[in-house]
Every structure is written in C-alpha cells, then in structure tokens.
Design a protein that fits this description.
This protein is of the alpha/beta class and about 100 residues long. Helices cover about 45% and strands about 20% of the residues. It has helices at about 20-30, 40-55, 75-85, 100; strands at about 15, 35-40, 65-70, 90-95. Strand 2 (about 35-40), helix 2 and strand 3 (about 65-70) form a beta-alpha-beta unit. The relative contact order is 0.17.
Length: about 100
C-alpha cells in the first residue's frame, strides 16, 4: 500500500458491527492508536444515523462508512457527498451501478 497523506499508514480497520452506540464508541476508543481506522455499517447507521457516525468521527480515527451505495448516478453522488460531509474517509459503492454512477 502506498502511503499518502489521505490514508492511514496502518491498513487495518476494526469493524464496529453493533447497533449499540456506546459499545461502538468503547471499541473505537480501545482501538485508537492500534489500527488505521474503524468501519461502521448499515446496521449501525440504521440504529444511530448521522449523529452516530459523527460521534465515531469525533474520536479522531478514520471512518469507513460501509453502506454499499447503489442507485441512480445523481442519488449516489449526493449520498457520497453527505457521507464525506459526515467525516467518512472511505465509503463503498456498487460497481454494478455503472460507470456514470461511479464517476
């Protein structure tokens, strides 16, 4: 992996696979300094929304928001902008949405 200013030097991310915000914050806090970032997924986001993601981002770790976006290009672009505005540094998008959606 090439080291860039935008990516952590440690490629290991911890999955915060829980809908419980307090548990996710505890795991993320314990992981700080040991991993390159944390991953939150659809179950976490459905339970805690944007505020939950912001709470994780506020811990200072890079956040991979794994919501697997797949929609029409304009909707995907808007969702990606909103995820970035929350502080997510990495997101997932479905390639099968097509090249226009991926742009």
């Amino acid at each position: 992996m090439t080291n860039t200013p935008d990516l952590p030097t440690n490629p290991v991310f911890v999955a915060l696979d829980t809908p419980d915000l307090d548990q996710a914050l505890a795991w993320a806090g314990a992981a700080r300094g040991h991993v390159g970032g944390v991953k939150t997924g659809l179950e976490f986001f459905s339970a805690n929304g944007a505020d939950g993601v912001r709470r994780i981002v506020d811990l200072g770790l890079p956040v991979f928001l794994d919501l697997k976006f797949h929609d029409i290009p304009a909707t995907m672009a808007g969702a990606c902008r909103r995820a970035a505005a929350l502080g997510a540094e990495l997101i997932t998008v479905h390639a099968c949405a097509g090249s226009e959606a991926l742009q």
